[in-house]
Amino acid sequence: MMLGAWVTVVTALMLVVPGALVGRRMLLPWPVAIAAGPPITFAVVSVFTVLYSAIGFEWNIVTALLALVITLLFAWVYAALLATRRFATLAPNRADDDPPLGWRAAVPLAAGAGVGAIIIAITCIRPLVTTAFAGLGNISQVWDSLWHASSLRWIDETGVGSALRMGELMNYDTHGFNYYPNTWHALGAILFPLTGADPVELYNTYSPAVLAITVPFGVAALAYWFARHRFDPSRSAVLAGAAAAASALFPSLPYVEVQLTSVPNAVGVSMAPIAAILVISAVRDRRRVLAAAAAMAGVTATHPSGLILAGVIVVLWLLLEGLWHPAYGRLRDLATLAVAGLLTVVGIAPVVYGTIKVADTNELPFFDFREEGVGVLSGLAQAAFNGTIPLEKHYPIWALIVLTVLGLAVLAWMRCWAGLAGWLVFVLVTANSVVSLGVLSYPLGAIGGYFYNSPHRLTFVVAMFSAAAAGCALGAAAVAVAGWVAGRDRTSPRSARWALPAVAVVLIALIAGAGVVRYPADAQIASKERGGKYIGPDDLDAYHWLAEQPDAHDVLVLNNLDQGTGWLYPVTGVTPMFPFYRANDFSQRQRDLFWGVSQIGADPYIDGIVRDMNVHYVIDSPPSYWEFQNGVPDPENGVQGDPFLALRNSGAPGLTEVFRQGNVSVYRVNEQVYRPAG
After folding, report:
1. Is the peptide bond before 623 cis (omega within 30 degrees of 0)?
2. Could you write out the DSSP letters of every residue in 460-486?
3. Which pLDDT tens digit goes with each residue over 87-141?
4. How far is the C-alpha of 315 from the C-alpha of 269, rounded, in Å?
5. Distance of CA 72 to the CA centre of its chain
6. How far is CA 485 from CA 331, 492, 493, in A?
7. pTM of the predicted model, to two decimals?
8. Alpha carbon distance 204, 149 (integer Å)
9. Separation CA 73–CA 22 (nearest Å)
10. Can you name the residues that pair with 656 across neighbouring β-strands?
11. Angle of helix 61-82 relative to helix 37-55, nearest 10 degrees?
12. Which residue in 46, 86, 184, 450 has the fewest CB atoms around it within 10 Å?
């Protein structure tokens, strides 16, 4: 548990501090700079990992520090330009009717974010330490987790952090192009020398650690924006602090995403409100335009779905509020948004290029997760109140439903129409991913496509609005109680001064207590896919046995990618032919060897591939991940089957079994394969 705590602390510092320093240098007030720290940090990582790969620099802790220094110098030039007479007229100081949040007033907000972070980190990490096999070295059985853990190790070993070069990891033989939003992995990779964790331990702790920061920060940003429709900064901070703490109580926020390993998506989406609200604030304070664009770029580079959420928030605000109450006039305000958008496009140029280049092979937006037998009303209820798969067994959680409904009522009272509209839009988008909503299905599906129309990913978005609304309800109640307490003793200015902080402390303590109550259920959700169904203790023993062989690190291991044995790489560093469950641009020799594994030693053509690719070991560990990948291959009837089944049943003339434990077998390639007769 100490390692988990250390990784969480280091992650928080590495995630927040660089971006906060850059944001502050770009003239953001300190509280705003800290809130914007995570997305700006990811923006720096995104730009410099691509740049370094292009010019031949490695990405590591030293070059990351260099990137920060260069960015700070750039931000200093920006601030200096705005101080000149010519540029000062383009970006005047903040309007007087929007006072900044002071340090003292920010204390309840910081306390709420801290409580939320602690609840999330403990709820996700502690179950691994206490109940999972191999502890923090436990293997998640979910498909995506292998990619994330492998990426962390690969970036650390190669120094290649560019999102445009991930094909080099995905396909050992062809290195075919593959774009993947890799910013989250690149930041995590530089934590290795700082934490001492191995790749699996780092993946298991870094994943919830980042969400422990970005989820409370994102929800707090939403709640503060909501609250400023009615309250002053000090009271708004209380509402935002309550929301940040309460975010840890919603199971669809951090815990489902940790279970299903869609962490980069969750991180990008959770930061999206921060970037969106920074863009909105830049309309009033144009000095924030560059920082807002940087935050938007960081969100997008972490996962493009975050850009969609941020865009929806900004558009709804513009249509329902911004156009009706312009800061400097409608045209000038639109021009400010246009400049921020243009700068964002420049910052996300690699994302745009990579996304377009892989568009033909990206099938995820076309996935369909709709359920048979679910009615429209049931689908709407599931979408609105955290009831979609895999939370159907935990639904309904009445306390959270009541808080959400009260919070929505508070939003209506505060006339925060854009916030209400945002919640409603994503409820409809989420419901449409569960059951068709008729004529609305196409436009809603177009938005949902950026989230792969996956109910749990979309429920995450709804839950952010719900948690922010619930925090507003709790915080508004605290403000009312504090006002009542202060009003009872009007002769004592001291009691009036301390009434609100005291009530805020009690409220956050109560939320922390609720976190203790929710711990068993939420911990079970976060650690659910950890039982060894595909990769278990026998697999780990086989990996470590292989790693101990004198020649294992200098050769290639043929593995069945469908079985997930690519975990050999993040666990030990030994190189498998297939490091993931899929590979882009299979080469013909990869395909022939994969399907001809049982002919090693019998087919000269297959033996030639073994020699050319320097394959010295074969590992087999059934079952395969998807059902159609198991059993006897029958391509004439459209059944893929398992090409390693013949090897398992009858062996191969050119292979000798050298390790067996449970259902895991390791074979060594015989010498005659490398020294053919004649």
Report:
1. yes
2. HHHHHHHHHHHHHHHHHHHHHHHHHHH
3. 777 766 665 556 677 777 789 999 999 999 999 999 999 999 998 899 999 999 9
4. 16
5. 26
6. 46, 11, 12
7. 0.94
8. 9
9. 9
10. 668
11. 120
12. 86
